[in-house]
TrEMBL record, chains A, B, C, D:
It is an enzyme of class 3 (hydrolase). Substrate binds at residues 70, 121, 165, 172, 196, 246, 264. Keywords: Acetylation, Hydrolase. Its EC number is 3.5.1.2. One of its GO terms (biological process) is glutamate biosynthetic process. This is Glutaminase. It comes from Pseudarthrobacter sulfonivorans. InterPro entries: Beta-lactam/transpept-like (IPR012338), Glutaminase (IPR015868). Homotetramer. The keyword Cytoplasm does not apply.
Amino acid sequence: MTTALKAPPLDPILDDIVRSHRPQQETGSVPANIPLLAAVPFDRFGIAVATTSGEVFSSGDADVPFSIQSISKVFTLAMALRGDSSGILWSRVLREPSGTSFNSLVQLELEHGIPRNPFINAGALVVTDHLMEETSDAAAQVLRFLTAQAASTGPFIDEAAAASELASSSRNRALAHFLKGFGNLKQPAESVVQNYVRQCSIMMTCVELAKAGLFLARDGHGSLGTVVSPSDAKRIGSIMLTCGMYDAAGEFAYRVGLPGKSGVGGGILVIVPGVCAICVWSPRLDAKGNSLAGTAALADLSDRTGWSVF
Amino acid sequence: MTTALKAPPLDPILDDIVRSHRPQQETGSVPANIPLLAAVPFDRFGIAVATTSGEVFSSGDADVPFSIQSISKVFTLAMALRGDSSGILWSRVLREPSGTSFNSLVQLELEHGIPRNPFINAGALVVTDHLMEETSDAAAQVLRFLTAQAASTGPFIDEAAAASELASSSRNRALAHFLKGFGNLKQPAESVVQNYVRQCSIMMTCVELAKAGLFLARDGHGSLGTVVSPSDAKRIGSIMLTCGMYDAAGEFAYRVGLPGKSGVGGGILVIVPGVCAICVWSPRLDAKGNSLAGTAALADLSDRTGWSVF
Amino acid sequence: MTTALKAPPLDPILDDIVRSHRPQQETGSVPANIPLLAAVPFDRFGIAVATTSGEVFSSGDADVPFSIQSISKVFTLAMALRGDSSGILWSRVLREPSGTSFNSLVQLELEHGIPRNPFINAGALVVTDHLMEETSDAAAQVLRFLTAQAASTGPFIDEAAAASELASSSRNRALAHFLKGFGNLKQPAESVVQNYVRQCSIMMTCVELAKAGLFLARDGHGSLGTVVSPSDAKRIGSIMLTCGMYDAAGEFAYRVGLPGKSGVGGGILVIVPGVCAICVWSPRLDAKGNSLAGTAALADLSDRTGWSVF
Amino acid sequence: MTTALKAPPLDPILDDIVRSHRPQQETGSVPANIPLLAAVPFDRFGIAVATTSGEVFSSGDADVPFSIQSISKVFTLAMALRGDSSGILWSRVLREPSGTSFNSLVQLELEHGIPRNPFINAGALVVTDHLMEETSDAAAQVLRFLTAQAASTGPFIDEAAAASELASSSRNRALAHFLKGFGNLKQPAESVVQNYVRQCSIMMTCVELAKAGLFLARDGHGSLGTVVSPSDAKRIGSIMLTCGMYDAAGEFAYRVGLPGKSGVGGGILVIVPGVCAICVWSPRLDAKGNSLAGTAALADLSDRTGWSVF
């Protein structure tokens, strides 16, 4: 819904949010099995807001690149929908909350290889497999897309991190072979996993991610023209709201009231339809895998600005 | 979010929606085990919109009473939150989408008797149990609440239907005893089931339900004053969006983009924050238990009006 | 298989087993929610062997009555099979190991109300329901059967214990209503639960239980004539071996190698086909709900005597 | 238990069983995804009995090689136990019936990567991984073991079939990577899957398999000396009885009453402790993946001979 809401003066609010929410001591967890993410200093905290009127506000470590991880799933979904005039993607993946862990195989088995939504790992592997029909180097294409949308040459794939993560990607390999067994993966399982892990290893800053996600707040219109149709932009927002925060989507909708997508790198991308895209980043995670300080900061920002879709 | 959206002229739109969506032939299913619901003529179709500016629009069978069934869960949740200053309710029921059927015991067992959200049956039984701490006749209190909010003496409990439904409520009894076994039910299981079934058997019209639900579009302000706080109103909306349509919540958010709650009586209550509450009713159901014609009508109405939270 | 194995001299072996296995200090757990069972002194230990040649050996607390609990399921199954010439029972309950907890509802839901076997609670409720077609007081009939087979007037229903257990039988009530919802319970759920709990509250001694179970070691021939056919006797043995020890059936078959059925009262009934029936009792339980000292004693006895079906 | 049972004259019985049970028309199913197995003529039927007294009886297609498939799991388990003085194998795999499908990932996820028993695929992969600690070409070692026990140079690995099966082994790859993710696989996942598939592709005749399995009926003593200890022989028998027939173990124990292990190649190996080893083969399968004619023939043979452990 395009709203007439005028954004309040954001600079002081963002500065205050950084002061209030930057971690003072080490709490929360780091992703098991991804050593390079675990090594990021616990007190990193950045926030950026890109508005539909073309302004960008930021504070804290908003220009420090971090690993976007699962936030990439929003963009691969948009890229897949853009080229999917036949609607075949939605026969391979559903749009319902999963109610189970992001990398669970249980539901996938019970539901015969059709992932519950594109934001759990199984669904994201299917989306990447879909993108690979056009190009075998899907991760590079995701990088080009993000570079263009962010209007920045900053984004890059951290190949060392990707290689390290690949070495401990047994669960994702299991998911990929499982999908393959159900006939829901067209490319070789190992190739899909490699592209998936490399797309997750893209490094971006809060400012870049907020700008890259802005098309979702602008009815699908990105910096270089239409990315997706207005209805697809709304629909990506609805999937973010119902499925974007692992199995804490309900809690996030309850506390923040905005479509969001988090990654285990500690980033969260949030859309305020018609108003702005927000990216917050702080590396330590809660038990569900979402940024601890980031989630708190977004609840605070929502309270201060009145931004909520409800 | 309070929006400045002006509602388009609604009368011709609603009339057209009735013309387009009133079932012409018998399709869809009726609730198994509830004979009185199955007996409602398949071509019933009504729609009503109550706006925050005080107008009410309606068309079709908008003044025919029907069984509100699970739509009652929105109102019992609001009633429970109103009186729950200690927040104890949220220690007894979560706010996450369930990913499983509305009356499943599987998840409840795996999660040790804490229901996933207040809109699956197990969660609604806990909410009713919570209301019964104040009065043993919780169903009568729900009726009084609805009568007041709808500003109508129309609503009544169909006791014959309730008695009939009680006779085939084995699954709800199983859920109640199961909750009891986990210590998450305080009143006798049979009493909770009786109140639950009776609150579901309340008969209301589309016009009455739209008016009764209007407080959720008005930051919690009902016809007689504050029902719940603005933040609780938003939060009920978020639970409706993520959990309100059984296991088709994601699909409904995707197609309609608005918080909604359906009942197996064929009714759906939808909130457009800051704008209006909508109630549509048509008795035949899809495979997930949501009104077939009602869902289609709401998708159509959302397209025509641009109403969507995304 | 009727074997020619001669039993070794048993008296000194049993005495030695009592010396070795009677608990010296309090270890293991007691059944939650059944206070009267929890109150039994931890150092009780009895063992009795009734041979197909008509001898009875015993040692320790073999004449102290204890609550037979789930051991009753062996006898109700035999009673149900005896009268089930049409084989209808096996359309209502399967004969497969469950792989899940004895009182789980998960599998029952996934498998549409057909319990996996007659020894999990859901299956035993179906068996009791089956017996109630002949007499509403099925528990009294079970008592008469056991009294006759044990050739003793000792067995009795501990009605106080039954009443106490009934007050905390929420899970069994949930199972019964769940079965009712699937159409797999004919009598009222509450009546079935009452009979079930009362049959579990029958008090017997090791000597009485060994004698009562002897027909299973004698091709179905009991003290007063045929109880079940030779093939049904073998088949009950096979169900005991695969399903008799809750979810430790595999471990028990591995360590002891004999068909057995345990109860949370601490008793275990074991059959050595063609040779004898054994009952051991000691009240403290392991994590799976089987008698800790009893299981160890049976492994020891199996090693000393060479008794094993493998 | 060593029994004194004298085998009845077997030649006429086996001939009669072949006459009665050889399929006359095509019923049952063939394994999906293994074309070479599906191509075996439906009317193949062979049976062989190797007795502890050194005789071998056979009838029908008892000298036609077939793919042993999961029957190999009995032998890899014996090989692993033989060399596992430390008992480490039993910390990596349990001994309980699974209650779920042979290649399910659900239970494996819920139980954190510890397979329920060595006869489901996940457990067998762990056993093969265990064998690979001694030699990377575990399948060749299994072949050597079988060749020696069968005292025949006949057994061979059908490498073409293995290659074909490997091409459609996505589910087994998923299981292997899943186990790897839980730290319960030491060798590379792909290598374990290759060895596993090749051990399953060993071709043997009924006569050879009966002779190879005879050590399990002789307290662990094989043709060339001790294979496993008497207690391990009994224990393998107990695992066969409780877990050997996929999720029809209970039904097989009920109908046949003997420890058995089946393969999707249509073979079933059965042990009569102290008496003989039996192998029956017929390629068409029932819904659980066990040989249709083979299972019926074994029930018939058990009835005619009285062979049963119960």
